[in-house]
Amino acid sequence: MSQVTRKAAVFVPAHISGFFQPCEANAPERAGSRNCGPCLNLGMLTDVRVKPADRPSVKISINGRRTHEAKTTSAAVDQLLRMARGSFKVEVNHSCQVPVGAGYGASGAGALGAVLALSKALGLRVPRGRLAAVAHVAEVTCRTGLGDVGAQVLGGLVIGLRPGGPPYGRWKRILVPRDLKVVCATVGPLSTRKFLSDAGFVRRASELGGRAIKKVMKQPTPEEFMLASREFADGLGILDEELKVLIQKAGEVGVMGVSQVMLGRAVFALARGLKAERVRDAFLDVLSPRQVMVSELNLGGAKFL
Question: Does 62 share its domain with 138?
Protein backbone atom coordinates (compact mmCIF):
# COMPACT_ATOMS: atom_id res chain seq x y z
CA MET A 1 0.00 0.00 0.00
CA SER A 2 1.42 3.44 -0.96
CA GLN A 3 1.85 6.31 1.49
CA VAL A 4 -1.15 8.07 -0.07
CA THR A 5 -4.22 8.46 2.15
CA ARG A 6 -6.95 6.07 1.02
CA LYS A 7 -10.58 6.79 1.84
CA ALA A 8 -14.07 5.32 1.58
CA ALA A 9 -17.54 6.34 2.78
CA VAL A 10 -20.60 4.30 3.75
CA PHE A 11 -24.22 5.01 4.72
CA VAL A 12 -25.88 2.64 7.20
CA PRO A 13 -29.59 3.06 8.00
CA ALA A 14 -30.87 3.57 11.52
CA HIS A 15 -32.85 0.60 12.82
CA ILE A 16 -35.66 0.48 15.36
CA SER A 17 -36.49 -2.64 17.34
CA GLY A 18 -40.21 -2.70 18.13
CA PHE A 19 -39.58 -5.76 20.30
CA PHE A 20 -36.70 -8.13 20.95
CA GLN A 21 -35.95 -11.50 22.52
CA PRO A 22 -32.42 -11.61 24.03
CA CYS A 23 -30.60 -14.83 23.13
CA GLU A 24 -27.46 -15.83 25.00
CA ALA A 25 -24.78 -18.14 23.57
CA ASN A 26 -21.27 -19.31 24.39
CA ALA A 27 -19.81 -17.22 21.57
CA PRO A 28 -20.74 -13.58 20.73
CA GLU A 29 -20.99 -14.56 17.05
CA ARG A 30 -24.06 -16.66 17.93
CA ALA A 31 -25.49 -14.39 20.66
CA GLY A 32 -27.81 -11.43 20.15
CA SER A 33 -31.56 -11.26 19.74
CA ARG A 34 -34.53 -12.17 17.63
CA ASN A 35 -36.28 -8.89 16.93
CA CYS A 36 -38.38 -6.97 14.46
CA GLY A 37 -38.45 -3.39 13.24
CA PRO A 38 -37.96 -0.89 10.41
CA CYS A 39 -34.79 0.59 8.92
CA LEU A 40 -34.97 4.34 8.23
CA ASN A 41 -33.72 6.45 5.35
CA LEU A 42 -31.86 8.39 8.06
CA GLY A 43 -28.86 6.88 9.79
CA MET A 44 -25.08 7.09 9.99
CA LEU A 45 -22.71 8.43 7.33
CA THR A 46 -19.18 7.14 7.98
CA ASP A 47 -16.08 8.45 6.27
CA VAL A 48 -12.79 6.56 6.79
CA ARG A 49 -9.28 7.76 5.90
CA VAL A 50 -6.27 5.49 6.30
CA LYS A 51 -2.57 5.59 5.51
CA PRO A 52 0.50 3.56 6.53
CA ALA A 53 2.25 4.79 9.67
CA ASP A 54 5.20 3.81 11.84
CA ARG A 55 2.97 3.98 14.91
CA PRO A 56 -0.62 2.70 14.56
CA SER A 57 -3.43 5.00 15.71
CA VAL A 58 -7.21 5.19 15.49
CA LYS A 59 -9.06 8.49 15.84
CA ILE A 60 -12.88 8.54 15.93
CA SER A 61 -15.08 11.62 15.59
CA ILE A 62 -18.86 12.00 15.81
CA ASN A 63 -20.42 15.02 14.10
CA GLY A 64 -17.04 16.70 13.85
CA ARG A 65 -15.95 16.22 17.48
CA ARG A 66 -13.34 13.72 18.55
CA THR A 67 -14.66 11.14 21.00
CA HIS A 68 -13.42 8.26 23.14
CA GLU A 69 -17.02 7.12 23.76
CA ALA A 70 -17.53 5.24 20.46
CA LYS A 71 -16.48 1.95 22.04
CA THR A 72 -18.38 -0.24 19.57
CA THR A 73 -16.78 1.39 16.52
CA SER A 74 -13.38 1.21 18.22
CA ALA A 75 -13.77 -2.52 19.00
CA ALA A 76 -14.88 -3.29 15.42
CA VAL A 77 -12.00 -1.31 13.86
CA ASP A 78 -9.44 -2.98 16.14
CA GLN A 79 -10.74 -6.41 15.12
CA LEU A 80 -10.55 -5.57 11.41
CA LEU A 81 -7.04 -4.15 11.71
CA ARG A 82 -5.90 -7.53 13.05
CA MET A 83 -6.83 -8.96 9.63
CA ALA A 84 -4.69 -6.38 7.81
CA ARG A 85 -0.93 -6.57 7.35
CA GLY A 86 0.95 -3.47 8.40
CA SER A 87 0.64 -0.47 10.69
CA PHE A 88 -1.85 2.30 9.93
CA LYS A 89 -3.13 5.68 10.96
CA VAL A 90 -6.93 5.48 10.80
CA GLU A 91 -9.44 8.32 11.01
CA VAL A 92 -13.15 7.47 11.34
CA ASN A 93 -15.65 10.30 11.01
CA HIS A 94 -19.29 9.56 11.84
CA SER A 95 -22.08 11.96 10.86
CA CYS A 96 -25.14 10.85 12.80
CA GLN A 97 -28.60 11.82 11.53
CA VAL A 98 -30.50 10.27 14.48
CA PRO A 99 -30.31 10.70 18.28
CA VAL A 100 -27.57 8.61 19.91
CA GLY A 101 -28.51 6.28 22.77
CA ALA A 102 -32.25 6.44 22.11
CA GLY A 103 -32.79 3.09 20.37
CA TYR A 104 -32.05 3.92 16.73
CA GLY A 105 -29.16 1.48 16.33
CA ALA A 106 -26.51 4.20 16.05
CA SER A 107 -23.80 2.04 17.66
CA GLY A 108 -24.37 -0.83 15.24
CA ALA A 109 -24.58 1.58 12.29
CA GLY A 110 -21.31 3.20 13.28
CA ALA A 111 -19.46 -0.09 13.70
CA LEU A 112 -20.82 -1.54 10.45
CA GLY A 113 -20.07 1.61 8.48
CA ALA A 114 -16.55 1.78 9.89
CA VAL A 115 -15.57 -1.80 9.01
CA LEU A 116 -17.15 -1.66 5.54
CA ALA A 117 -15.35 1.62 4.72
CA LEU A 118 -12.04 0.60 6.31
CA SER A 119 -12.01 -2.74 4.51
CA LYS A 120 -12.52 -0.97 1.17
CA ALA A 121 -9.91 1.69 1.92
CA LEU A 122 -7.35 -0.97 2.89
CA GLY A 123 -8.18 -3.08 -0.15
CA LEU A 124 -9.04 -6.10 2.00
CA ARG A 125 -10.99 -8.84 0.30
CA VAL A 126 -13.17 -9.64 3.27
CA PRO A 127 -16.72 -10.84 2.44
CA ARG A 128 -19.55 -8.49 3.44
CA GLY A 129 -21.01 -11.11 5.78
CA ARG A 130 -17.71 -11.41 7.66
CA LEU A 131 -17.56 -7.65 8.09
CA ALA A 132 -21.13 -7.63 9.40
CA ALA A 133 -20.13 -10.37 11.87
CA VAL A 134 -17.24 -8.19 13.13
CA ALA A 135 -19.64 -5.28 13.74
CA HIS A 136 -22.20 -7.58 15.40
CA VAL A 137 -19.59 -9.07 17.78
CA ALA A 138 -18.40 -5.56 18.71
CA GLU A 139 -21.96 -4.50 19.53
CA VAL A 140 -22.75 -7.59 21.61
CA THR A 141 -19.48 -7.51 23.57
CA CYS A 142 -19.78 -3.76 24.24
CA ARG A 143 -23.44 -4.26 25.30
CA THR A 144 -24.66 -1.38 23.12
CA GLY A 145 -27.18 -3.55 21.28
CA LEU A 146 -28.12 -7.09 20.35
CA GLY A 147 -29.58 -7.30 16.88
CA ASP A 148 -29.33 -4.13 14.79
CA VAL A 149 -26.46 -5.01 12.43
CA GLY A 150 -28.14 -7.88 10.54
CA ALA A 151 -31.19 -5.73 9.82
CA GLN A 152 -29.02 -2.76 8.81
CA VAL A 153 -27.23 -4.88 6.20
CA LEU A 154 -30.57 -5.91 4.68
CA GLY A 155 -32.87 -2.88 5.00
CA GLY A 156 -36.68 -2.80 5.12
CA LEU A 157 -39.04 -3.92 7.87
CA VAL A 158 -36.94 -6.81 9.11
CA ILE A 159 -37.72 -9.76 11.37
CA GLY A 160 -34.75 -11.54 12.93
CA LEU A 161 -35.49 -15.25 12.76
CA ARG A 162 -32.29 -16.49 14.36
CA PRO A 163 -29.81 -14.59 16.61
CA GLY A 164 -26.16 -13.89 15.91
CA GLY A 165 -24.12 -12.33 13.14
CA PRO A 166 -23.54 -13.91 9.73
CA PRO A 167 -23.46 -16.85 9.04
CA TYR A 168 -25.47 -17.80 12.17
CA GLY A 169 -28.17 -15.13 12.17
CA ARG A 170 -31.14 -15.21 9.80
CA TRP A 171 -33.33 -12.30 8.73
CA LYS A 172 -36.41 -11.81 6.59
CA ARG A 173 -38.19 -8.76 5.21
CA ILE A 174 -41.89 -8.13 5.82
CA LEU A 175 -43.68 -6.67 2.79
CA VAL A 176 -44.77 -3.04 3.27
CA PRO A 177 -46.88 -0.53 1.27
CA ARG A 178 -44.81 1.87 -0.85
CA ASP A 179 -46.12 4.99 0.88
CA LEU A 180 -45.37 3.76 4.41
CA LYS A 181 -43.43 6.18 6.63
CA VAL A 182 -41.95 6.02 10.11
CA VAL A 183 -42.60 8.98 12.41
CA CYS A 184 -40.37 9.14 15.50
CA ALA A 185 -40.58 11.29 18.62
CA THR A 186 -37.56 11.24 20.94
CA VAL A 187 -37.65 12.44 24.54
CA GLY A 188 -34.17 11.21 25.49
CA PRO A 189 -31.74 8.29 25.83
CA LEU A 190 -31.87 5.11 27.91
CA SER A 191 -28.85 3.09 28.98
CA THR A 192 -28.92 -0.09 26.88
CA ARG A 193 -25.93 -1.42 28.84
CA LYS A 194 -27.73 -0.95 32.17
CA PHE A 195 -30.87 -2.80 31.02
CA LEU A 196 -28.96 -5.63 29.33
CA SER A 197 -26.98 -6.14 32.54
CA ASP A 198 -30.20 -6.58 34.58
CA ALA A 199 -31.02 -10.32 34.73
CA GLY A 200 -34.68 -9.71 35.64
CA PHE A 201 -35.18 -7.33 32.73
CA VAL A 202 -33.51 -9.72 30.28
CA ARG A 203 -35.69 -12.60 31.51
CA ARG A 204 -38.87 -10.53 31.08
CA ALA A 205 -37.82 -9.31 27.61
CA SER A 206 -37.03 -12.89 26.59
CA GLU A 207 -40.49 -14.17 27.56
CA LEU A 208 -42.40 -11.22 26.03
CA GLY A 209 -40.17 -11.14 22.94
CA GLY A 210 -40.75 -14.84 22.31
CA ARG A 211 -44.51 -14.24 22.29
CA ALA A 212 -44.14 -11.26 19.95
CA ILE A 213 -41.99 -13.23 17.47
CA LYS A 214 -44.60 -16.04 17.31
CA LYS A 215 -47.38 -13.50 16.74
CA VAL A 216 -45.60 -11.82 13.80
CA MET A 217 -44.35 -15.07 12.29
CA LYS A 218 -47.96 -16.29 12.17
CA GLN A 219 -49.10 -13.13 10.39
CA PRO A 220 -46.11 -11.14 9.02
CA THR A 221 -47.71 -7.76 8.29
CA PRO A 222 -46.81 -4.20 9.42
CA GLU A 223 -50.10 -4.03 11.34
CA GLU A 224 -49.42 -7.24 13.27
CA PHE A 225 -45.86 -6.09 13.96
CA MET A 226 -47.13 -2.86 15.52
CA LEU A 227 -49.68 -4.75 17.64
CA ALA A 228 -46.95 -7.10 18.88
CA SER A 229 -44.61 -4.19 19.56
CA ARG A 230 -47.21 -2.33 21.64
CA GLU A 231 -48.01 -5.45 23.68
CA PHE A 232 -44.28 -5.93 24.27
CA ALA A 233 -43.82 -2.32 25.40
CA ASP A 234 -46.81 -2.46 27.75
CA GLY A 235 -45.61 -5.76 29.23
CA LEU A 236 -42.02 -4.60 29.67
CA GLY A 237 -43.19 -1.72 31.85
CA ILE A 238 -40.66 0.98 30.95
CA LEU A 239 -43.14 3.36 29.27
CA ASP A 240 -43.12 6.62 31.25
CA GLU A 241 -45.86 9.26 31.31
CA GLU A 242 -44.29 11.45 28.60
CA LEU A 243 -44.12 8.49 26.22
CA LYS A 244 -47.71 7.50 27.02
CA VAL A 245 -48.86 11.02 26.10
CA LEU A 246 -47.06 10.78 22.75
CA ILE A 247 -48.59 7.35 22.06
CA GLN A 248 -52.05 8.74 22.83
CA LYS A 249 -51.44 11.74 20.51
CA ALA A 250 -50.50 9.49 17.59
CA GLY A 251 -53.40 7.13 18.30
CA GLU A 252 -55.89 10.02 18.06
CA VAL A 253 -54.67 10.80 14.53
CA GLY A 254 -55.30 7.23 13.39
CA VAL A 255 -52.15 5.34 12.46
CA MET A 256 -51.17 1.80 11.51
CA GLY A 257 -49.72 1.52 15.00
CA VAL A 258 -47.59 3.33 17.58
CA SER A 259 -45.19 1.93 20.18
CA GLN A 260 -41.96 2.50 22.07
CA VAL A 261 -38.53 2.44 20.44
CA MET A 262 -36.41 -0.29 22.10
CA LEU A 263 -34.43 0.75 24.06
CA GLY A 264 -35.01 4.49 24.23
CA ARG A 265 -37.24 7.21 25.64
CA ALA A 266 -38.81 7.49 22.22
CA VAL A 267 -41.90 6.34 20.34
CA PHE A 268 -42.45 5.51 16.68
CA ALA A 269 -45.53 5.26 14.50
CA LEU A 270 -46.11 3.66 11.11
CA ALA A 271 -48.38 5.76 8.93
CA ARG A 272 -49.25 5.94 5.24
CA GLY A 273 -49.17 9.02 3.04
CA LEU A 274 -50.52 12.25 4.53
CA LYS A 275 -51.26 10.62 7.88
CA ALA A 276 -47.52 10.71 8.58
CA GLU A 277 -47.61 14.52 8.48
CA ARG A 278 -50.59 14.54 10.85
CA VAL A 279 -48.68 12.33 13.31
CA ARG A 280 -45.67 14.65 13.06
CA ASP A 281 -47.89 17.66 13.84
CA ALA A 282 -49.42 15.81 16.81
CA PHE A 283 -45.94 15.12 18.20
CA LEU A 284 -44.98 18.79 17.63
CA ASP A 285 -47.79 19.80 19.99
CA VAL A 286 -45.64 18.32 22.75
CA LEU A 287 -42.02 18.33 21.50
CA SER A 288 -39.63 20.63 19.63
CA PRO A 289 -38.92 20.10 15.89
CA ARG A 290 -35.44 18.66 16.60
CA GLN A 291 -37.10 15.84 18.60
CA VAL A 292 -39.36 14.68 15.76
CA MET A 293 -38.32 12.78 12.60
CA VAL A 294 -40.28 11.57 9.59
CA SER A 295 -38.59 9.00 7.35
CA GLU A 296 -39.40 6.62 4.55
CA LEU A 297 -38.29 3.02 5.07
CA ASN A 298 -34.81 2.25 3.83
CA LEU A 299 -35.09 -0.80 1.57
CA GLY A 300 -31.47 -1.10 0.42
CA GLY A 301 -29.48 -1.49 3.63
CA ALA A 302 -25.86 -0.39 4.10
CA LYS A 303 -24.27 1.05 0.94
CA PHE A 304 -21.05 2.67 -0.25
CA LEU A 305 -21.24 6.36 -1.17
Answer: yes
